[in-house]
Amino acid sequence: MAHAAPTAHRRHRGTTTDRTHDLGKSAMVRALLAGLVYGVWAAFIKRQMGPVDAGNVFYGILCGALFAAIMFTLGRIGSRLPRELHAAAYGAFGGVAVGYLYSLTGDSVLRSAGLGIAVAAATGLTAFYRYYMREP
Known about the structure:
Radius of gyration: 21 Å
Helix content: over 70%
Largest sheet: none
Structural class: mainly alpha
Shape: elongated
């Protein structure tokens, strides 16, 4: 008796609009959560152990909203960029974000720039490795 050869199972994929909507929703949630953390961290550093006032709260909201907007934008347009430019954009974003937070502590501008450059290089190299290994 002959047996049929095993066939690969087909996966049912949703329409592209469903997948795009899901990716956009998860990217938005991820950006908002990261922006919330960044905003709270910036407001905490800016406060410098003084009382919490409306200025600190507004400053944290502003920093978090800017961080989330840039992160969401990079997530949306990053896939259209070449992998080198995509990694460089994330590296620059990470370096500027960390360097700015460090500058809020009141330490030297050179030290915050050095830390920003180090974080940018590490983030850019990590992102490049990830995109080089996963993108076609």
